[in-house]
Design goal:
- Helix content is about 20%, strand content about 30%.
- It contains 5 helices and 12 strands.
- It has a 6-stranded antiparallel β-sheet, with helices on one face. A 6-stranded antiparallel β-sheet has the order 4-5-6-7-11-12, with helices on one face.
- β8 and β9 (about 155-160) form a beta hairpin.
- α2 (about 80-90) crosses α3 (about 100-110).
- The longest helix is centred in the middle third of the chain and has 12 residues, at about 100-110.
- The chain starts with a strand and ends with a strand.
Length: about 220
């Protein structure tokens, strides 16, 4: 699996993304992504990605992906219905073998908006910044095999597929979450919680939307 992470600053007067922190997060993810990657920053939002290519199409990916509209996308996954989606969003294109899942996901979002996520069939997690709506979407598929952790404070959200880089880069106080431990020992921890208090995970088959004023909606 590849690795992704990012930072969004929000509020009435959000500060620019700390480039050093974002690069540090990317470097901490390199063990999971030996096939390269990079960072992208657009004022209040920045994303990092480290690739581990598992399909022929993924070798053509350049992440984070920036659209002409200013949207930003990182994706870790496998799109099982890529053929069906291609016919709907790329009518007439003949280069199916070189079109990446990443491009299809972004084109689907541009066509259907938030409703596109339920049309994605496969094994994935993603982070998408809508530059028009000023909304960050963090999404996981129904199986939830690819993790996506996040931490919030009063002015920002930081996310990462890997837990330890998130804790280290964000300098998060590590207080054991007893609810997680109890759930782990009895059967399964409650969805959405992690071994540490105030650090969460996007639930399988859920979407987390973070707006420019810092409000968080889960659906």
């Amino acid at each position: 699996m590849s690795a992704l992470g990012g930072i969004l600053n929000f509020g009435t007067n959000p500060r620019p993304v700390d480039r050093h922190m974002l690069i540090s997060l990317g470097e901490a993810l390199e063990e999971r992504g030996p096939d390269g990657g990079g960072e992208a920053i657009s004022a209040r939002v920045g994303m990092t990605y480290r690739a581990f290519h598992t399909t022929q199409e993924s070798q053509f990916e350049v992440q984070p992906l920036m659209s002409v509209e200013g949207h930003m996308l990182t994706w870790d996954g496998r799109l099982d219905n890529r053929g069906d989606l291609m016919r709907e969003v790329f009518s007439g294109r003949s280069d199916e073998k070189t079109v990446t899942d990443l491009e299809i996901v972004l084109a689907a979002y541009l066509k259907w908006g938030e409703g596109s996520f339920v049309r994605l069939i496969g094994d994935f997690c993603l982070a998408l910044w809508d530059a028009d709506l000023k909304v960050l979407f963090l999404v996981r598929d129904v199986s939830g095999s690819r993790p996506l952790h996040y931490w919030l404070d009063a002015g920002r959200i930081i996310w990462s597929t890997e837990l330890m880089p998130l804790l280290d880069v964000a300098n998060i106080h590590r207080e054991v979450n007893e609810e997680y431990v109890a759930g782990f020992l009895t059967r399964y921890p409650k969805p959405g919680i992690t071994p540490y208090k105030n650090v969460f995970m996007v639930k399988p088959q859920y979407l987390l939307a973070v707006t420019q004023d810092g409000s968080v909606q889960e659906s």
